[in-house]
Amino acid sequence: MINPIQTTFRNLFESSPLISFAPGRINLIGEHTDYQEGFVFPAAVKQGIWVAIQKNGLKSCRLYSLDFDQEFTFELDTLSPKKGHWATYVMGMVALLNQAGYSVSGFDMVFGGNIPVGSGLSSSAALSVAIGTAISGLFGFEIPKKSIALYGQKSEHLFAGVKCGIMDPYASAFGAKGKALLLDCRSNTHEEIPAEFGDYSLILVNSKVKHSLADTAYNKRREACEESVRLLSAHFPGIVTLRDIPSADMEKVETLLSAELYPKAKHLITECERVHEAAAALKLGNLSLFGELLKASHLSLSKDYEVSCPELDFLAEKSWEITDVIGSRMMGGGFGGCTINLVKSSRIMDFESRISSAYSARFGIVPDFIPVQIGSGASILKEPADTK
Ligand code: ADP
Ligand code: MG
After folding, report:
1. The pTM is what?
2. Are 63 and 73 in contact (CB under 8 A)?
3. Tens digits of per-residue pLDDT, 165-208?
4. Which active-site residues does the annotation give?
5. Which-ligand-closest: CA of 338?
6. Is any atom of ligand 1 closer than 6 Å to the C-beta of 68?
7. CB 302: neighbour CB atoms within 10 A?
8. Structural domain boundaries, residue 272
9. Whether residue 173 is found in the same domain as residue 261
10. CB within 5 A of ion ligand 2: which residues?
11. Does 379 appear as a known binding residue?
12. Is residue 324 located within the same domain as residue 257?
């Protein structure tokens, strides 16, 4: 990918750029836990975004998106990020960096990548992190990775209009080859856990559906968790979120919450615990336990948290029936998107054909399969040969 971006940059702007890279991400386990300051377990993938950048000595920034085959120019003194346009991700990062006191001057930029957009790999976070890394490198700002991740998150909130958690840009910034990140969404710190799958490979199955209840349901779930914390705090002094309650106290939690609130709280509490168990299983190389935890996570998201949908349930259940599959669960916010599956590498083709024919027979949709390998986080791949 680096070559077409570099060549396009040279053709358009006739100079030699700095090149940055930032990856997409998967989440092995730990869903809907981030907004209760819980634990998630993401990893960077090899697919990503490459950004070529060079100073242009102007007060404007000239951009070219290789994948959209579109150009866009904006003036630095009249920044107006527009929701829905790819250039918003550049303007958003520039606006936030300027606000933070980094003085970004005019630049030219070309970027493109190989993350399927809207498929659950978080192309938008990769884009923001690649842009932040490129600008930081070009102007010598030396912005810490965590700040780049936080600016990426804030840019999505303020300019793209997406209320995402820290996980996506964090994993893109901090990912490491062969490692998953046990990320604490309270302290925004992580522990690297070796994620080696031996004869097995990770593959996403994209259901290709997105049900419209996702946004309302998301807000309702957040509110349900906050309400549970309010009700439980009288009985569990010192708790700030549901993450602070150990699963050993589940019976007490059940007696204190309504039949509606309890299963939601139960998901949060058990899912945080499953993240730790999954990390421990990977440390020990216990893949079958890891797979059981993926299944338990799916069942909890589907039955207790009620954020799955018939398509995701079908995909996960079909995978559980296949002996060559160690684990499968919905990945992401739910109501559509992907499942993540750990499948025997030599049996991937058979897996794809069985899932594809069953899913298309049931829903009339041919699913997409996205093989993923755990790769490195954001970095600068190439310094510019000359500067203006
Ligand atoms: P995802 O789940 O992949 O993050 P989003 O809807 O959050 O999906 O973000 C997708 C948006 O990010 C695209 O509509 C586009 O504006 C921007 N984007 C992502 N990848 C690219 C790319 N390779 N080139 C240009 N813009 C991109
Ligand atoms: Mg996104």
Report:
1. 0.96
2. yes
3. 899 999 999 999 999 999 999 999 999 999 999 999 999 999 99
4. 168
5. 1
6. yes
7. 20
8. 200-371
9. no
10. 124
11. no
12. yes
